[in-house]
């Protein structure tokens, strides 16, 4: 574990993380399951946490409750008084409140190094899980039975790496870890269907923002997924996954649909050339507009205008 010149403390191994938490060295070099109640004693021996931000080059999944004070993952401070499932991917940042009180902490944490997955399909599959790409703006709220399920799965992983390592150990551990991630993915998509008022309000606000953007006659660049995510104070991954679950289309697909509808209006209601229409819509190069329009409608902009003018 080391501090970089940029002022970030870097944790690169599972062993370094347990050392940081003043816990015994892990039994397996690439993965460990931590009972967070075990951190109470080590926390009591520490007068204050170091305030510098920490970058950990590990995957982490955790349920934390009973913290007094704030833990900031990315830009978002979390309240762990109720069960929430939090995910971190290698290279993401967290910061501990110097006054953080762990005297009543409970829950668990699993940490694993990317090398654990290196020769397995899960190494690629894990990159597609939306909850690791949140930019840490959202946490997943668990029902009691869901937390029990995950706790049982993590206990099985712990039992496996506590046994003497043999030829099958890593295969079993990675298989069990993939099951944990599959359940997490189920719960992640479940929240879009159960939190109706919050998520449907977000859909409404996104639809309004998208409509207003293309209704504005000012010259402006093509909108991006990041633009709308920032406007709505969520991450791009969360916004796209939520829209896909509730509407069947991602953020980018919604943007393209609105863009094409605006393009059709301009083609039929103005005398602008195809190039002028492309520039009006924010395209830097007209050929990109032509390509997208044909991809979405099956005809070129010129053909659409000519056919509709008959």
What does this structure look like?
With 310 residues, this protein is of the alpha+beta class. The chain folds into two domains: 2-189, Jelly Rolls, CATH 2.60.120; 197-308, Homeodomain-like (Arc Repressor Mutant, subunit A), CATH 1.10.10. The chain is built from twelve helices and eleven strands. It has helices at residues 14-20, 39-44, 122-125, 144-162, 169-194, 196-215, 225-232, 236-247, 251-269, 274-281, 286-297, 301-308, and strands spanning 2-3, 9-11, 31-35, 54-56, 59-65, 71-73, 76-78, 84-88, 92-96, 106-112, 140-141. The strands form two sheets. It has a six-stranded mixed β-sheet, with helices on one face. A five-stranded antiparallel β-sheet has the order 3-10-5-8-11. Strand 1 (2-3) and strand 2 form a beta hairpin. It is elongated, with a radius of gyration of 24 Å. The termini are far apart. The model has no long low-confidence stretch (mean pLDDT 82).
List keywords for this structure.
about 300 residues; 6-stranded mixed sheet; alpha+beta; 5-stranded antiparallel sheet; Jelly Rolls
Kindly provide the name of the CATH class of the largest domain: Mainly Beta
Sheet with the most strands, sense and barrel status: 6 strands, mixed
Tell me the span between the first and last alpha carbons.
71 Å
- Per CATH, which architecture of the largest domain? Sandwich
Number of helices: 12
Q: For the largest beta sheet, what order do the strands appear in spatially?
A: 1-2-4-9-6-7
β content, as a range?
5-15%
Look up the CATH topology of the largest domain: Jelly Rolls
Label the structural class: alpha+beta
What is the N-to-C succession of helices and strands? EEHEHEEEEEEEHEHHHHHHHHH
**Tally of strands:** 11
Overall tally of structural domains = 2
User: What is the average per-residue confidence, as pLDDT, rounded to a whole number?
Assistant: 82
């Amino acid at each position: 574990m080391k501090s970089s010149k940029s002022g970030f403390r870097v944790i690169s191994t599972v062993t370094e993380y347990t050392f940081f938490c003043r816990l015994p060295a892990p039994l397996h070099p690439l993965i460990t399951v931590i009972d967070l109640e075990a951190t109470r004693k080590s926390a009591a021996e520490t007068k204050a946490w170091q305030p510098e931000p920490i970058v950990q080059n590990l995957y982490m999944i955790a349920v934390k409750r009973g913290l007094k004070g704030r833990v900031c993952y990315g830009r978002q401070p979390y309240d762990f008084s109720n069960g929430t499932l939090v995910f971190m991917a290698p290279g993401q940042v967290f910061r501990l409140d110097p006054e953080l009180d762990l005297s009543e902490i409970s829950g668990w944490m699993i940490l694993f190094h990317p090398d654990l997955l290196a020769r397995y399909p899960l190494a690629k599959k894990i990159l597609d899980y939306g909850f690791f790409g949140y930019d840490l703006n959202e946490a997943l709220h668990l029902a009691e039975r869901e937390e029990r399920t995950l706790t049982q799965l993590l206990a099985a992983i712990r039992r496996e790496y506590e046994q003497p390592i043999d030829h099958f150990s890593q295969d079993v551990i990675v298989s069990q870890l993939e099951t944990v991630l599959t359940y997490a993915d189920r719960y992640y998509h479940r929240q879009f269907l159960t939190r109706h008022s919050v998520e449907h309000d977000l859909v409404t606000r996104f639809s309004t923002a998208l409509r207003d953007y293309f209704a504005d006659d000012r010259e402006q660049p093509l909108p991006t997924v990041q633009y709308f995510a920032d406007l709505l104070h969520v991450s791009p991954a969360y916004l796209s996954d939520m829209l896909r679950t509730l509407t069947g289309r991602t953020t980018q697909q919604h943007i393209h649909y609105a863009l094409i509808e605006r393009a059709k209006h301009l083609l039929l209601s103005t005398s602008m050339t195809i190039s002028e229409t492309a520039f009006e819509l924010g395209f830097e190069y007209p050929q990109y507009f032509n390509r997208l329009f044909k991809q979405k409608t099956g005809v070129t902009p010129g053909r659409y205008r000519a056919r509709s003018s008959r």
